[in-house]
Write a structure and sequence with these properties.
- It is a single chain.
- The protein has 278 residues and is of the alpha/beta class.
- It is built from 9 helices and 16 strands.
- α2 runs parallel beside α3, α3 packs parallel to α5 and α6 packs across α7.
């Protein structure tokens, strides 16, 4: 699979936020077709207080991390110490189009990635970032701002909102080279009168959201002709095939890795590839 000339082979990657640190990501270089970093903002963010993860059922996980990250300059400096044999994608988050553009300038100067993913869909932001970009109709503005500062491929990461196909179309019209979907689904961590997350609200992931992800991917594929990266509840080769049938060109995996150590995760990926291609 290609995104603006960038080959992703196999068409399987990690979702942003999984294997967040560069030294961990390095372990999956060549196992995954592309590597995606943790969402990074212009300035450092400390995230929410614990608890930040809640798993009420095996097929459902909720998190509200608050997008903790060291900031663009510190993360770019860290990345400059690493090299990867597969495409490395930097995930960006910001409160304004200008913040996204400033982040791009920093990475282009210190450690240029192979592509950028624009996280305009985190469901539990601290400010006017994440999914607020969609609610405020700023997706196209963010895309144009970033495209004005780089020639690298730009991937727009969307959540399962109404008329997601229309939003994807607007992103592509503004210059997005691919669409990834879906981000986690908003939910409330209330159980027996008690909130299980410090932020109360969080993002739901895991197999429970797969039907939502499939529908979103289908709507996006009907609206745009650029590559689509499907995610949300993928665990098995059958799940991957379902996303491909719905219109995805590649997939990203996240929650399935929870509880796995590095070697277990690598073995899981090798088995997944074998089931898909042998």
């Amino acid at each position: 699979m290609y995104i603006a000339g960038l080959e992703i082979n196999p068409p399987i990657m990690n979702a942003s936020g999984i294997f967040s640190y560069s030294d961990i990501l390095k372990n999956f270089d060549g196992v995954l077709g592309a590597l995606v970093g943790k969402s990074v903002s212009l300035k450092e963010k400390h995230g929410y207080e614990t608890p930040v993860i809640y798993r009420p059922a095996r097929d459902l996980l909720m998190n509200a991390m608050g997008l903790p990250n060291p900031g663009a300059e510190a993360y770019a400096t860290e990345l400059a110490e690493f090299s990867f044999s597969v495409p490395f994608i930097v995930s960006l988050v910001g409160e304004t189009p200008e913040e996204f553009a400033e982040c791009v300038d920093i990475f282009e100067r210190i450690a240029p990635p192979d592509a950028y993913e624009l996280n305009v869909s985190c469901p539990h932001p601290k400010g006017n970032e994440g999914i607020e970009m969609i609610y405020q109709n700023k997706v196209a503005d963010v895309t144009r701002a970033v495209k004005a500062h780089t020639h690298k491929p730009v991937i727009e990461k969307l959540s399962a909102v109404p008329q997601i196909g229309r939003i994807a179309y607007q992103a592509v019209e503004a210059g997005a080279d691919a669409i990834s979907a879906i981000n986690t689904v908003p939910g409330l961590s209330l159980r027996n009168g008690r909130y299980e997350l410090s932020n109360r609200a969080g993002g739901i992931s895991g197999p429970a959201i797969k039907p939502i992800g499939l529908k979103a991917v289908m709507e996006i594929r009907q609206a745009v002709g650029v590559p689509v990266i499907g995610m949300g509840g993928i665990e098995t080769a059958a799940d991957v095939r379902d996303y491909m049938h719905a219109g995805a060109d590649a997939v990203a995996l996240g929650t399935v890795f929870c509880g796995m150590d590095t070697e277990t995760a690598k073995q899981y990926l090798e088995n997944l590839r074998r089931e898909l291609y042998e």
